[in-house]
Amino acid sequence: MTARLPLFRRTVQDDWIDYNGHLSEAYYVLVFGFATDALMDAAGLDAAYRTRTGHSLYTVEAHVRYLAEVPRGAELLVRTTVLGVSAKKARFVHEMYVGDASGDPVATEEIFALHVHQDEGRAAPLPDGAHERLAELVRAAPEWAGRGIREV
Question: Is-above-0.90 flag for pTM?
Answer without folding.
Answer: yes
